[in-house]
Amino acid sequence: MQASEAVARAAAAERVLPPSKRPRLASVRVSPGDYLAVICTLNFAVALLLRMEDDLAALILLGLTWLVIPALAYTDRVVFDGHTLARKGLFPLLLRILRGRALELQIEEIERVETMAVRTLRRGGRVRYRYRSEITGKGVTFIFASGGRSYRNMIRTLFPLVADDKLDARSRELRDYLIEPGALNLKVKLLQLASTDVLEGATADLLPNAKRRVRRQRAETGELSEVDPERAELLRRAANELRAAGRLRQSAEAFRRALLMTPRDGRLIYEFARFLRSQASAMSDGRLLSRARAGLRLAARRAGDDAQLLSRIGESFFEYGDLSQAARMFRRALESDPRAFRAELGLAEVALRNGKLAHVIHHYNAAARIASDEAQARFARCEADYYALLNDDDNYLAAELSRFGWLQQIQRARKISVRLTLASLLLLLVGVSLDDSLATVGWSLASVSILAWIIVAAGGRLLSHRRKAS
Predict the structure, then answer these.
(1) How far apart are CA 209 and CA 207, in angstroms?
(2) What is the pLDDT of residues 358-382, one digit of tens each?
(3) Are the C-beta atoms of 87 and 77 separated by less than 8 Å?
(4) What backbone phi and psi angles, to 5 degrees, belong to 127?
(5) Which region holds residue 361: left if phi is over 0, alpha if psi is between -120 and 50, else beta?
(6) Strand, helix or coil at 419?
(7) Domain 181-356 adopts which CATH fold?
(8) Please, are residues 232 and 262 in contact by the beta-carbon 8 Å criterion?
(9) Alpha helices, DSSP H only, in 192-265?
(10) How many CA atoms lie within 13 A of 85 on its CB side?
(11) How far apart are CA 420 and CA 445, in angstroms?
């Protein structure tokens, strides 16, 4: 509802205002990780200058570090006005001057939206997730991370306007189920779900318990009540919203109640299987991971001819590394709907994992033919052309294999340089307290390791892009 109202306001504003005057519907700050890395590096340079007794240069560099970099980080934002996604701020302005074009992307030009989740903290039945969303199109990439209301507002405003086939599974879940904590607490209260403390240790065997209770209820009443499907839908939404918020024990209880009412709902079982995987990851429990796989197989049997659901189940099997099951789901989806775009993409990924470049090219070309808009077709054609070039040009294939090899070496070197930097800083601190010779060794090692980290980080960014055909 909020997203539709925002779009309506944007459409009305667009009829009255020129594009440059459209109001901001959502704005989220760019992740400050790169800025923090620059600040730390410059602070180390300041310390080196002080050690060399160049106080004036150190003072100037310190002032620039703590005045300019925070200003760049504070103003660097991703802004959405209902029609265009753009990066605004002082640093994007500098990039625009240097490159001659603005960092912006229209809604219809978006090719892919992918979201990653990182578990940052686990406490009892709650897990704190940090989400990182990446939006790509026409060679432009926007990356922003969760951290408050601005991220939730961006997700609710932007993601509903993007075609479903462009969103990965987690992005779809955030689009549908990421809500404000206050609204979620109210929903939990209305559904009378127990607190995390009460549910501690009470939801270990959800699916078997649900099946037994369903059989007992049917034996007593003959059939489920007429209001069960409606309440099951409310519980299903609450379960997914609780999972997105990291409240896994309450999510488990909501899934359990929903499964009691609609135990043969393929989409519900699929969502429950994804929940089990999240729980298995949070608890490091291999048994729950096996149950998640079993849940996916059950969801596949209950999916019927739902091509979209079959494609999503196939993607989950692919994430598990079960390529044969994933390919089977994608083929079933195409049999149900020959225009299942994500199923064709999935078959291309499976073929790539199996090393069959000809099949990869075929499936990407097929995806380009059935794409629903130009952005999807452009992405599929670019992938098909890239793998066709790999298949046909031995020199280009050798160059790309060399690039992949260098990337792997750079990743190893980056990890080593980080560890060496931490060890040298520790040695430096110990040396300052105990022995000047140790401090000198620490300064030398820290300087070399930080310089190596800068070089490998820059090299990694350069090598992350595919080579152009000669």
Answers:
(1) 5
(2) 999 999 999 999 999 999 999 999 9
(3) yes
(4) -130, 135
(5) alpha
(6) helix
(7) 1.25.40
(8) yes
(9) 196-199, 206-221, 228-244, 248-261
(10) 28
(11) 8
Amino acid at 152: R
Q: In what order do the strands lie in the sheet with 112-123?
A: 112-123, 126-137, 140-145
For residues 380 and 366, what is the distance between their CA atoms, to the nearest angstrom?
A: 8
How far is the C-alpha of 159 from the C-alpha of 112, rounded, in Å?
11
- Dihedrals φ, ψ of 305, to 5°? -105, 20
Bridge partner list, 115 = 133
CB atoms under 10 Å from CB of 320, counted, come to 14
pLDDT tens-digit map of 177-224 = 999 989 998 988 888 876 665 555 554 455 455 455 545 554 444 444
Domain ranges of the chain: 2-30+76-177, 181-356, 395-463
Cα separation, 29 vs 36, in Å, equals 14
**Strand order, beta sheet including 104-106:** 26-29, 77-80, 84-88, 104-106
pLDDT of residue 104: 92
- Round to whole Å and give the CA distance between 96 and 308: 40
For the full predicted model, state whether its pTM sits above 0.70.
yes
140: number of Cβ within 10 Å: 18
DSSP class of residue 338? T
